[in-house]
Amino acid sequence: MQLRRAVTLVCYWHHDDFVIHDYLRRTTTVFDPVAAEILSLFDDWTDSEQAVKNLDGCDPESVGQAIAALRERGLLLTPKEFGADGGMLERAWGTWAPEADMFHFATRDASFEEPTPESRQERVREGRPAIFKNYPGADRILLPRRPARLTDEFGKVLYTRRTHRAFTGEPVPLDVFAALLSTVFGPAGFIDADAFGTLMLRTSASGGARHELEAYVAVFDVTGIESGVYHYNVLEHSLELLRQDCSREHAARLCADQSAIRDAAFVVFVTAVVERMAVKYRHPRAYRVMLMNAGHFGQTFALTATALGLGPFQTAAFNDSGVEQMLGVDGMAEVALYALAAGWPTGPGPARSPAGLESFGRTVLCTESTVPRD
After folding, report:
1. Domain range 2-106, CATH architecture
2. Which of 196, 229, 185 lies closest to 326, judged by CA?
3. What would the pLDDT profile of 287-319 be if each residue is shown by its tens digit?
4. What is the CATH number of domain 125-343?
5. Are 234 and 186 a contacting pair, CB within 8 Å?
6. pTM of the model
7. Comparing C-alpha atoms, which of 41, 34, 4, 6 is closest to residue 18?
């Protein structure tokens, strides 16, 4: 019988067990580690009897039994079982595999249970993570608390928002800079979250009001603030100095040498304190929510910057390890997710020609779909 190894298998040690995880079918099986060697014989379509012969130095009967067990658990598939899933997965996700498709499919169809007062108490039994982070020994700058000038019509702000990559080099006034940070990252209110204590609200959505995101700012050209890397202390509305040896060139190198990072007046590196999210949401799907939350903050940052007359820029193209080292975070309990920058724009945004007949002629507008039938 022709068999092939499922293409979505990941093997790992968990405590004392050797685990084979099929992230597409969401099955987890404990096997002897020799199973990995047997599976490697089925990288392509292979006859099971030939596979037994190819495994030198092993008892053919025991190998045959192991193949049968792997077959029974759905880890070795017949052509019919392999079906369209394998080919479709490779076509759709091939350039991202295995990291992206593993994360996506392994977190699909999570079981969402309504929390009870008892389950909430259990999740905080060993303590609640702090909702604010600070650096008590750092030199700090207390920022002005003037309200942001956000008087433009929402529609105007929404439709004039563009990603800017060119800046004038003029310094951003301190009050404008402070208004942007407080509007995007500062507290908009506080709520009683029962067992979880007091939680903060911000102008961006955050799953469960966990607000696991922190802001670190590399300042290059803000009036009254010396260049350096700072942590934005949300509770104090202050900047805590972490280091003064960060140049524009260094920040750009960490962000794929993008000129928008090099030329911006400041760059905000957004991190996530994992414990704040994990203490409430135990399923790994919550990692998706952390990424969504970073996106919410990125959009609020872009719209607020636009309303203040600044040009926003945002990117996920950065070296995680380098950014985390620069910020002094460990990359485990606190991880880098996003880079947001701003400055005075040189114009309304990159000039691009409107789409015309030729452009639409090069474009596939729709994909025809059929309704699946039983």
Report:
1. Alpha-Beta Complex (3.90)
2. 229
3. 999 999 999 999 999 999 999 999 999 999 999
4. 3.40.109.10
5. yes
6. 0.84
7. 34
